[in-house]
Amino acid sequence: MASFVDDGLPATRDSWPQGVLDSLEEFTQGDVVACPQLVFHGSPSCPLTQTSQDYALEYEGDMPMQVHADDAPRWALVTSGTCDLAEADAELPLKPFVQVSPIVDMADMDGGKRKLVRQGKINYLLHVPLLSTYAPGFWVADLRYEYPVEKGWLASQERLKGFESERDQEVVGRAVAWLRERPAMGGDFVTLVARPVRTLLGELRVSDREAADRLDQEISEWAVAVDSRLEPRRVEIILLSDGVDPGEATQTWWRDTVDRLREGAGDALVILGPRFERLDQISVRDYRRLTPLAKPHQKFSNE
Q: How buried is residue 97: exposed, middle or buried, by Cβ count under 10 Å (0-12/13-18/19+)?
């Protein structure tokens, strides 16, 4: 039995609607198009968003809910991988849908949070910088919501650039991948390591913004070597820099922080480190033994 996605799918490449696949070759992941009418399935008995709360005023029972036109975003970001759009190298294209995420204006967000979004530290929000050249605002793709559209619809849309260069646009793939692959870590790790680190980083940003920025610049990502992700008893913290060794101030801050983590953990968790490594020097084999955690600000999949 075939999937419903296969029902009616063109049987050959040549039988796709004329011009659709050719038009799709112009699109890439990270392009911007007009936002389609957004629909999601919800329950008025358990409303979680303003849309479902509005439906609850008139309806009962589970149902599809359409985002009101007054709340509908102006644009959407193409989140599907570039190779999945036109399927240019596929003898028979088998993917009729493309995923898009709504882009919203968050100009009212305070300056500190806007900076975090620009730096990619709120993992479900992605700044789309070039859109401010089309309309004033702080335009952000909300990756918490992805919506399928048929490729025939996408092929008919005007394509806008949201990023200055192909290299800049690669942030879209990394952001989508991180949301899917970021590890679930055990409660002890979250409580005794991750959250205290984020708290201390926040305190540093308030007391010494320059030092906090330097810390961000000098540590590309952090990682851990653990005996178990979900039930850790032993954790070693590794700080990874890109191309240069972190400065003495950064290293001192991390050593002091890990000392404080050890004090807070007591006998509940053995915390080792910090160990400083460079991404241009660590072997692939050693890196693969670690659990990469991206930036210390970012949350884990079970938080």
A: middle
Residue corresponding to tokens 């309806």: 59
Q: Note down the domain range covering 239.
A: 187-292
The 10s digit of each residue's pLDDT in 22-75 is: 999 999 999 999 999 999 999 999 999 999 999 999 999 999 999 998 888 999
Token representation of residue 48: 């979680």
Indicate the Cα dihedral angle 171, 174, 180, 183, nearest 10°: -120
Is the domain of 276 the same as that of 168?
no
Reference 150, options 12, 15, 24; nearest CA is 24
Domain boundary residue, one of 125, 159, 181: 181
When pLDDT is averaged across residues 191-196 and rounded to a whole number, the result is 92
Neighbours of 192 (CB within 10 A): 21
User: What's the pTM?
Assistant: 0.77
Pick from 146, 166, 181: which residue ends a domain? 181
Q: Specify whether 78 is located in the same domain as 96.
A: yes
| Cβ proximity of 93 and 83 under 8 Å | no
The number of domains in the chain is: 2
CA distance linking residue 303 with residue 299, whole number of Å: 6
